[in-house]
Amino acid sequence: MTTHEIKAVTPYRLDLTVSALRRMASNVVDVYTPDGRYLRALGGFAQPVIVSVTQPRADALAVSISGGSDDGERVLASVRQMLGIERDLSDFERRAVTIPWLAPLVRRMRGLKPPRYPTLFEACASAIVFQQLSLYSASAIMRRLVLALGTTFEFDGIPLAVFPGIEAVLGADEAVLRATGLSAGKLATLRCVAEAIASGALSEAMLEARSSTDAASMLRTIKGIGPWTAAVILLRGLGRLDVFPGNDSSVAANLALVAGERVDVGPVVDALGSQRGTLYFCLLLARLEARSEIGRASDVSR
Q1: Whether the predicted model's global pTM rises above the 0.90 cut
Q2: What is the pLDDT of residue 45?
């Protein structure tokens, strides 16, 4: 095991950022321990690489790496990206605090950074699973999918799971996939995305080279990916803060929860400018806060 200290743009809070990344404590891939460690088993190496992240200081994270890679810089780059440690959200904060009903939430969530999935496929799979479902239902399906197809093992006595790769999904029996609770339509979309990435018809580099509008259009050429799903993929998969996944019942409900009344999201996101996507994470944390999920230790029991 090797340990590295990496600087973070302040304000930074690991608990808030991990909560936004994992969504719920039932997530078995992104694990938060009772002693405040973030654990993740990364695929894409000869064997899984485990990262253990803590926050010893307000401006730094300590990242311990163990497992099957001697490419520490690649692993650290992935951690920086996943945990958003170099993102400066000062423009969003300046704009958000001028909105009376939003300002208290933004102040409570100072230190949140926009998390990002380590691979395009994981971002796509997550967005597809969470389409038009409640947080609880989608999280339960995702957990079953990961445990059915991903590699599982223990690290320091804690069960971990590697998010299943493209090959695992494409090679899975239909009955196994259906048993996770995924609908036929979502399974078809998931397979289409996996095939597109595997064939090279879709890649992160292709999307990175395009504006958010054009990248969303490219994603929407895949049957089953609409405006909301494309926006979530760009936000959670490519870190595009200039997109906001609107036209969603959960977003409307979270807005009402924070504002205390129905809110027209259009003028709000316009006022928030080029970092408007941060509102999505703030609203998610507001919902998690109401359910006492922020910073809660992960439930990794099988």
Answers
A1: yes
A2: 81
